[in-house]
UniProtKB/TrEMBL annotation:
Keyword Ligase: no
Origin superkingdom: Bacteria
EC number: 2.3.2.29
InterPro entries, per database record: Acyl_CoA_acyltransferase, Asp_Glu_LeuTrfase, N-end_Aminoacyl_Trfase, N-end_Aminoacyl_Trfase_C, N-end_Aminoacyl_Trfase_N
The organism of origin for this protein: Formivibrio citricus
GO biological-process terms attached to the record: ubiquitin-dependent protein catabolic process via the N-end rule pathway
GO CC terms of this entry: cytoplasm
Domain (N-end rule aminoacyl transferase C-terminal) ranges: 110-230
Full protein name: Aspartate/glutamate leucyltransferase
Family of this protein: Belongs to the R-transferase family. Bpt subfamily.
Gene name linked to the record: bpt
Any one GO molecular-function label of the UniProt entry: leucyl-tRNA--protein transferase activity
Length: 243
């Protein structure tokens, strides 16, 4: 994929990065295909790119291009047909006291402090646990598309923050961080179900969940949300826990 002409008159080009250490599969090198120039990729253009397996990290729009590895598979959830299974319903019930509040992409000290605690507990040594304010803002608060934050509180205490993009055919779950010190919490499960519900309320068909990686403990869970589709061979196909 070298060029991409949107149905609006802008031309996007794609460039492979140098190889870097894979964050999900130990001992493997990774490479991304980056869409450029970033500043012209608005919500409409990004809406078309995400339908072809791309994702956003700050202003950086990319898709894995790790030949011969093809473990990173873009997935999206059919929110109109989604019905939580028993364990997922338990997570919703467990966190029934959470309240949600939507807000713009503004820096909040409390959010940043939670982000730092989450990275230190869940991703120690991964690099992001050393993020300073500027790196946090570039990752979480920089966007050329329609984006918003959702904070979740329990009895006034901040428990979780989600960054979500709204595109033409759905919502895209960009990043979520939560309180790592609450025992037996299921914030991640609750969050996916909450976002699916929001997409359904907005009349949008899809919740884009990023990449499913079968052999990564951190990323394999996504097939527990059904019906799921995967971007493979230049089209979307059903993806079940068995395939």
């Amino acid at each position: 994929m070298n060029d991409f002409l949107c149905d609006q008159p802008i031309l996007i080009r794609f460039y492979p990065t140098a190889t870097y250490e894979c964050s999900y599969l130990p001992g493997r090198d990774a490479r991304s295909l980056v869409a450029s120039p970033a500043e012209i990729i608005d919500g409409h253009a990004y809406g078309q790119l995400i339908q072809h397996g791309f994702r956003r990290s700050g202003l950086y729009v990319y898709r894995p291009a790790c030949h011969p590895c093809h473990e990173c598979v873009p997935v999206r959830l059919d929110v109109q047909q989604f019905q939580p299974h028993r364990n997922q319903r338990r997570a919703v019930k467990r966190h029934a006291n959470l309240t949600s509040h939507l807000q713009g992409l503004e820096f909040v000290d409390e959010h940043f402090e939670l982000y730092r605690r989450y990275q230190a507990a869940r991703h120690a040594g991964g690099g992001m646990d050393q993020d300073d304010r500027e790196q946090y803002e570039n990752f979480i608060l920089c966007s050329n598309v329609t984006s918003f934050l959702v904070e979740f509180r329990e009895d006034g205490k901040l428990r979780m923050v989600s960054l979500i993009d709204q595109i033409e055919d759905g919502l895209s779950s960009v990043y979520t961080f939560f309180d790592p010190d609450v025992p037996a919490a299921s914030y991640g499960v609750y969050n996916v179900i909450w976002q699916a519900g929001l997409a359904r309320q907005l009349g949008l068909p899809w919740l884009y969940l990023g990449y499913w990686i079968r052999n990564s403990r951190k990323m394999a869970y996504k097939t527990t949300y059904q019906p799921l589709q995967a971007w493979r061979e230049d089209n979307w196909h059903p993806l079940t826990p068995d395939n």
